[in-house]
Amino acid sequence: MYQDFLWGYRMENANDARIQKILNYPEKLKDYLKNFNNTSEIKIPSDPIERVIFQDKAKDAIRKIAQNRGHILMVGKPGTGKSLLAEMFNKVLDMSLGDYLRPQKAIVGYPGKDKNNIRIAYEDPEKIKAVLEEINLKILEQANHTKEFSLQEEINSSTKIRNGLLITAVLVVFTAIFISPYIFGVVGLFGIGAIFMQIQIMNFKVQEKTQRENGPPVKRSIKRFLDMVPEILYDPTGDTGLMGRISAPGHRTMKGGFRHDPYQSGGLGTPAHKRAFLGAHAKSPIIYIDELRTLLESGYMSHLLEIMQNKSYILEGGGDQSTGSGAADKSQDRLRAENIIIACCNHDVLNYLIEKSDGAFLSRIEDKGEVIELNSSVPETEKNIEAVTQYIKQEVTNIEVDFQNAWGKVIKKEGYEGVRIRSEKIKGELLPLEYKLEARDFSKEAVLEIIKELRCRSSKQELSALLRPINGVIKTAEFEAILENSKLVEAKHVCRALKIHISLEGSISQKMIEYNKKLLRHLVVNTDFIGYVVGLGVFTSKSGQMFGQPLPIRCQSILGGQNLVNAPGKLGEIAKAAVQNVRSSIRGAINKIDIKQIDCEMHIEYIQAHGGVEGDSASVAMDIGLVSSLIKIPVNYKYGVTGSLSGNVVLGVGGVAEKIKSIMDENLGMDGVCIPWLNCHDIEPLLLNTEYEAIEKEKVSGIRIFRNKNKTTPFDIYFCDNKYDAYKILLGIDEKKFEEKIIEIIKEYQNKTK
């Protein structure tokens, strides 16, 4: 007895300490921000790499790789900052070695040994442009001095003869009238001669026109001279960037090729060196491949490996989109390709590379660079909290730049009044007279809401490093503050933005919650909630964000039936194992009682869960539903429950913060939730910018959060070490009462079956 008392005393004191630590969380966080009132006090680092937050390991690796001019493969989830790190890497190299990395020579194409070959040379851009300009000028001068083809002399001579014959014919006619009619026969001869000369004149004119249209031999030779003039394929003076961003890597974008020539006959064809074009390998010192999967799908990996090894390549047709005449063309000389490769992928693609034994690419990366794994979450330290404020300030600055780029000319010419009037036409509604399109800084409370969201989106008691979805929240909160003409972005603006700016998966989750509200009301009206329990589910979007939703479960326990458990529907392997685990737990409780063993048939139904269920986080809920059906005590439907059951012990599960947020909506009518003690720290962010207090019921510790001001509409969160703690909250019974009810139910069954 003394040992039991001592254990209970220790556990009670331990729980009190854990509760107090949770209650102290908001003050600890505010202490991190004690010298901070709003983001106007934050300075943005001048070093571009330091503007990337949460990726210290990656930043250190990038500095080292930049020093060695090596390759990088960044592995991480979407939104962790891979693109931003690549851009920062580009800026750092540009500032330090840009004048040496940037191409200095123009790439020039010359006619090759035949019509399908070209020569490649690297020339001084200014000199080659001057030489080519002089050559083209001389050719054009020669073309201008060329006389136009003409048969005017022949035409004039023939015209005189024709006219002479016609005049002579007229004179003969007059002579015949006055002297002798026999002379009329001579008129026909002169007429035939005149007609012949007219035909000759027409032939000369047609010949002249044809020659002018086709061009004289001299002009055709000028075209041949122009076709022999070299072509500048790449001019470095017109390209200031170091990095080429390639979203669809392939022959065309990476190597280059030859365009098809539709005019291949009649002397109108274009020579191969004037149809050549270059890709990123020849033009970009740094090549950024945004997603390595596209490189694998295009089949370009083997070509990339060859170029990374040889640092040069032959320009040739026949690749993607190089069809027709361009497919047969190639260069006689090799193009230089000393590129720094920056590639990004997720863990699935990396595993694919490893499984397919394609270690060549990874070895090329590791030979002169590094494979960098980006954090998807980081510890909630003072340094990382300060990094969040820096990130918000950077986004505020970016939003102000966007406003100036979009509306700067209007503001300068018409003022903010003009912006308001024009914005009203865009929005289709009247805007406040004080509407002023200027970015606002974030208050401390607004920053805490962003931190709260980052913490809730990570199930590791850390801050989520998936920042891309947060960008939209920050921008939407800015517009909410602008519409109110608030001096700062406040917590309420962020809360509105979080409701507005949700992903497609989040929208689906919201619809499911709305549907479950109606379903819960229907169950309340039509059932006594014996065997019914509200579990809590969560699903993860492709972007890594989690969304919680209520999960109604109906359970039925039948004494004397078949000794099995039936759980229809699309259950995953883990969910099926959880069902069997719950069955074993209840069977163990029955067998613990010193009475004759009785078989028990169990049925579990996830109501309206058409998409299937996976995981073991509903095992405590299933246990409570089956026990409720067995001992005929209704479940408190105003409380949800989540947790993984192992024997009688409740273990931690994922996504608890998002699960709780999904049922805290007042319109859902829920009063609280039971969660594992191991997940107690997951509710810490829910305490920010709100009122709360410690509570206890039947020696089960918890925290009450008030959803509105003045401590109204409480929401209770109870922490459970074992399933009997959950029984106390949802069934109103303890372990002793549970055993008594089991004995009572079994005895009633035995009396009925005698």
Q: What strand order characterises the main sheet?
A: 19-20-18-17-21-24-27-26-25
Unreliable spans = 1-11
CATH class of the largest domain: Alpha Beta
Task: Give the helix level as a range of percent.
Answer: 40-55%
N/C terminus separation: 40 Å
Name the structural class.
Answer: alpha/beta
Report Rg.
42 Å
CATH architectural grouping of the largest domain: 2-Layer Sandwich
**Outline:** elongated
Helix segment count? 24
* Approximate strand percentage: 15-25%
Could you name the CATH topology of the largest domain?
Answer: Ribosomal Protein S5, domain 2
Instruction: Please tally the β strands and state the result.
Output: 27
Number of domains: 4
**Largest sheet geometry:** 9 strands, mixed
Write the layout of secondary structure elements.
Layout: H1 2-23, H2 25-32, H3 56-68, E1 72-75, H4 82-101, E2 106-111, E3 117-123, H5 125-145, H6 152-178, H7 184-214, H8 217-228, E4 231-234, E5 243-246, H9 251-255, E6 256-258, E7 276-278, H10 280-283, E8 286-289, H11 292-298, H12 301-310, E9 312-316, E10 330-336, E11 340-345, H13 347-355, H14 359-368, E12 370-373, E13 377-379, H15 382-427, E14 441-442, H16 444-456, E15 462-464, H17 468-483, E16 488-489, H18 491-500, H19 504-526, E17 532-540, E18 546-559, E19 565-566, H20 573-592, E20 600-606, H21 619-631, E21 639-641, E22 644-646, E23 649-651, H22 656-663, E24 672-676, E25 691-697, E26 700-708, E27 712-720, H23 723-730, H24 735-753
Helix pairs in contact: 3-4, 5-8, 6-7, 15-17, 16-18, 17-18, 20-21
